[in-house]
């Protein structure tokens, strides 16, 4: 688990706007975990999560999902953190997804299954990307599209050595690792306002000397 956390990319995000099918959301979160995405963002249809945070075949708990009331505020929040927002949307002027630079702080916006990226979002993103299609179909499933793009992001970051050293702050890495390994103790510490103890090599709370 420590090794997985040390490879997490805090400045590579995914923003899901109105993705409403649980199996699509679950598949996207699995890809986020596999690629090393630390945090996903979501605007839920009707404000109701399409899948529970701790579902997705157990992967939901490994990827932090931040909810936003609407896509405009979500994009603004990402911009405030200094992230570029790439919208996966086949509009005029969209570039091949492989031409985008994912080594800069960025987020990939995926729109709803039926209508894609909303007009409001289109007015606020930094760049449009598209997956070239040479068949008879006009598009691929949203979870497939997310996987294709995220693995290109991983390829670019691997080439730059961005997975070779921890990118999370030490205190964040310790906090998340403790919550993963010792969820019940972590919950008690939060309830009592206590700091998390250090962990030994086996992942257990270290005994004080």
Walkthrough of the structure:
The model is unreliable at 53-57 (pLDDT under 50). Strand 1 (9-17), helix 2 (22-35) and strand 2 form a beta-alpha-beta unit. It is built from 7 helices and 7 strands; from the N terminus they run H-E-H-E-E-H-E-E-E-H-E-H-H-H. It has 2 domains: 2-159, SPOUT methyltransferase, trefoil knot domain (Alpha/beta knot, 3-Layer(aba) Sandwich); 169-209, no CATH class. It starts with a helix and ends in a 17-residue tail after the last helix. It has a 7-stranded parallel beta sheet with strand order 3-2-1-6-4-7-5, with helices on both faces. With 209 residues, the chain is of the alpha/beta class. Helix 2 (22-35) runs parallel beside helix 5 and helix 6 packs across helix 7 (183-192).
């Amino acid at each position: 688990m420590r090794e997985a956390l040390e490879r997490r990319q805090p400045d590579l995000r995914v923003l899901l706007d109105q993705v409403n099918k649980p199996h699509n959301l679950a598949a996207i979160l699995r890809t986020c975990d596999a690629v090393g995405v630390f945090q996903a963002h979501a605007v839920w249809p009707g404000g109701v999560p399409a899948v529970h945070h701790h579902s997705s075949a157990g992967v939901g708990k490994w990827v932090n999902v931040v909810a936003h009331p609407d896509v405009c505020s979500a994009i603004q929040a990402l911009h405030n953190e200094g992230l570029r927002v790439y919208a996966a949307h086949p509009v005029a002027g969209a570039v091949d997804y492989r031409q985008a630079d994912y080594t800069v702080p960025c987020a990939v916006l995926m729109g709803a299954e039926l209508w894609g990226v909303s007009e409001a979002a289109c007015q606020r993103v930094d760049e449009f990307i598209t997956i070239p299609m040479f068949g008879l179909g006009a598009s691929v499933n949203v979870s497939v599209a997310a996987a294709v793009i995220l693995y290109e992001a991983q390829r670019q970051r691997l080439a730059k050595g961005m997975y070779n050293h921890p990118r999370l702050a030490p205190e964040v890495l310790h906090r998340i690792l403790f919550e993963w390994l010792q969820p019940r103790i972590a919950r008690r510490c939060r309830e009592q306002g206590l700091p998390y103890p250090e962990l030994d090599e086996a992942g257990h709370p270290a005994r004080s000397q």
